[in-house]
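Predict the 3D structure for this chain.
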Amino acid sequence: MYKLGMLALAILPGAASIQAANLADCASISADQARLACYDELATAAAASATEPMLASEPIERTTTAASTEAGSFISPRLDQEQANVNNRFVIIPHNRNYLLPVTYNSNINEKAWDEMYPGTGMDKVEAKFQISVKAIMWQEIFGKGINLWGGYTQTNWMQTYNTQASSPFRETDYQPELILAIDNDWTVLGFHNTRLDISFNHQSNGSSEPTSRSWNRLIGSALFERNDFSLRASGWYRLPESSKEDDNPDIEDYVGRAELEGIWRWDRQTLGLTVRNNLEKENKGSVQLDWTFPLSTRFRGYIQYFNGYGESLIDYNESTNRIGIGVSLTEPL
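Done. Predicted structure below.
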């Protein structure tokens, strides 16, 4: 019984010293057959212990990229999380920011477009704005390791929530489906780690009929960089040409722009964002957007958004907007 008790202790995790003592016990047996039987019992118990399944409470380590282990980096860990959940049907992966701004104020409203849609009613300067943005992987390693094809969808809505005279309609809804070829990268440029390169086909339209119909198609190239608590996305695009009969907004690039820089800085538990678009022409037009998020709870973050310039929405692409809004953010963009 003593030997069986010691044998049971030997197979418990962390009992290496006790196991060593049992080996000594076996060595002290003078009879060859009995000593060999003792060694066999210890070997059988050790093999059974090694093949036992891992307990559910034990953590499962996941391999991460080299960049994700850098001090302060916060983009690479998010990419690792996305990759770990690409085939999980119970996980919806965010794309651009998901948010709700129940109250926004625009000091420069587009009354002309409003009168075409809702004649005889006034447009409120205060309205709600919200955005839904998700993506899913469509083809993993389409051209090799680290090259994946994603499908994304973003919908941005502006609602005259408090305009009861016009029955609180959705003033504008912009739909943006896209295909994204994402290429993992590991370059370092001026101290910034280039995490990923994206090439995407992007369609954007507001789903309206004439005279308020707006749409365009683009090929967009983007490079995502990170350094400690700062990320930077640089993007440029080429508008795919349309026939003059079908083009609702032939000059949209002159207002919305041809390139974009988006920077996000994480400070303590807050994030500060700056997005700049520009038409790259002598007659300079574009836009600036400022973002500030801060913790409210474990699930939601407070969100303040300020936009000034052209192209906040398709219906307002050639009208300058000056808007500030407050609400909640569900997810952060890359």
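The longest strand covers residues 170-189.
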